[in-house]
Design brief:
The protein folds into 2 domains: about 200 residues, Alpha-Beta Barrel (TIM Barrel); about 180 residues, no CATH class. The chain is about 15% helix and about 35% strand. It has 6 helices and 24 strands. The strands form 5 sheets. It has an 8-stranded mixed beta barrel, surrounded by 5 helices. The protein has a 6-stranded antiparallel beta barrel with strand order 11-18-17-12-13-22. Strands 3-4 form a two-stranded antiparallel ribbon. Helix 1 runs parallel beside helix 6. It starts with about 30 loop residues before the first strand and ends in a 7-residue tail after the last strand.
């Protein structure tokens, strides 16, 4: 895993405004929806996407009358012009009643926020000349939306090549989930995101399923076996229980450690116990000083996590998925220091955890051992020298503002 980053950076919505945050990481795709249908907005909110684009008053020369559309619930014979200021405000109010949503307005060649601020450039691409003009915006705008209705693959590939080295995020307009997939896979890297223009919520569900699968298969963490070299009492300290808004299965937990270069997989409290009831949403992660893995290959301090932060759940297979923190409990408890070594790596890795039977670390599964829900994990209270655990080890030595750097750092 890479280095420490403040928790405020991790608590982002999956459709957070693309704002020049390429930085070489295009795995977190942005999704906006463009619609007049409440059903689509509801589906988008359920998927975690909270930005909705509506048509505004067209600029002069673009047919300022806008499209005619019968407003749902309007009286017989009453029509609302989608592009009118009145209809935009009514649409915004209707959508905001569905949940916490950001409604932005497309007018001519730009997208504007509720306060009139410019959010993105909107470029129609139907010719080589228009494509060239769009690519010229790379590095000039924060966000560019490419609207290429009848000509998608080649513009998308050229857009990826033009915008990748710059600070500008490039989104593409898609009318179906299948079209969105094409845009998100162009030149393997894909655009930074899509604007899904649809009145059919099934396309929202399909796109969410695709992105969820893509995230799970693309975000793998290499877990390696480590041998416990020491287990010792570590006095009292403030340990952190991370309560998630998700249920974790056996074999899953959070990557935690005293050093970001080597993180232990701490098991969720999802197993039955004679001591307390199962809490499959909780990970008793360790003291406040510890690093915890968050999305984007980074880490945060446990002390920085708050409700709404995002952490990285890791399964024993190495598959990962983001989870939202619902609550953090910090309490003084007796602690245990666990040290371990990984073959081929100099030095040792350590983690400090609460000394309790319910705190477990994920270990390799013994094929010859008994089959049970607890197989592949060991309680801290039973841990001993020579036991095997699973660790995520990174090669970078140094860490600076969330980015792994190659520099000399000695930690003990």
């Amino acid at each position: 895993m890479a280095s420490h980053v403040p928790s405020a950076t991790t608590a982002k919505s999956t459709d957070a405004t693309a704002s020049g945050t390429n930085g070489g990481n295009r795995s977190d795709k942005v999704v906006w929806v463009m619609t007049q249908a409440k059903e689509v907005v509801t589906a988008a909110l359920e998927a975690g996407w909270g930005t909705v684009v509506v048509e505004g008053v067209e600029e002069e020369g673009d047919g300022g009358a806008g499209k005619k559309a019968k407003r749902k619930g309007a009286k017989d014979g009453e029509e609302i012009t989608e592009g009118s200021a009145r209809s935009v405000e009514e649409t915004r109010e209707a959508f905001e009643k569905l949940g916490r949503v950001r409604v932005v307005t497309r007018r001519g060649g730009a997208v504007y926020g509720t306060g009139g601020e410019r959010v993105a450039a909107w470029v129609r691409v139907s010719s080589a000349g228009e494509q060239e003009a769009m690519c010229a915006l790379a590095g000039q705008e924060d966000v560019v939306v490419m609207d290429a209705e009848d000509w998608k693959v080649i513009p998308a590939e050229n857009a990826v090549a033009a915008f990748a080295p710059t600070r500008t995020s490039i989104l593409g307009v898609a009318t179906t989930a299948q079209d969105a997939q094409v845009l998100l896979e162009s030149l393997e890297v894909g655009l930074d995101g899509v604007v899904l223009r649809t009145s059919d919520p099934t396309h929202v569900f399909s796109l969410k399923s695709y992105l969820s699968l893509r995230s799970r298969t693309a975000s793998q963490v290499a877990l390696v076996p480590a041998t416990v070299t020491a287990v010792a009492a570590a006095g009292m300290g403030h340990r952190v229980c991370v309560d998630l808004c998700s249920l974790l299965p056996p074999g899953a937990g959070l990557l935690v450690g005293s050093f970001a270069r080597g993180l232990f997989l701490v098991h969720a409290e999802c197993l039955q116990s004679d001591y307390v009831a199962s809490r499959p949403f909780r990970v008793n992660a360790g003291p406040v000083h510890s690093y915890v893995a968050v999305p984007g290959g980074r880490t945060a301090y446990l002390s920085e996590l708050t409700a709404g932060s995002t952490v990285l759940v890791v399964e024993r297979t190495g598959q990962t998925w983001p989870a939202t923190v619902g609550r953090v409990k910090v309490e003084a408890r007796p602690l245990t220091l666990v040290s371990a070594k990984v073959p081929g790596h100099d030095g040792s890795f350590s983690i400090i955890l609460q000394n309790a039977e319910t705190v477990r670390l994920v270990s390799p599964i013994d094929p010859s051992g008994p089959a049970s829900s607890a197989a592949g994990s060991v309680s801290v209270s039973e841990l001993k020298e020579g036991d095997q655990l699973l660790l995520a080890v990174q090669q970078s030595e140094g860490r600076h503002t969330g980015i792994a750097v190659q520099e000399f750092v000695r930690e003990a």
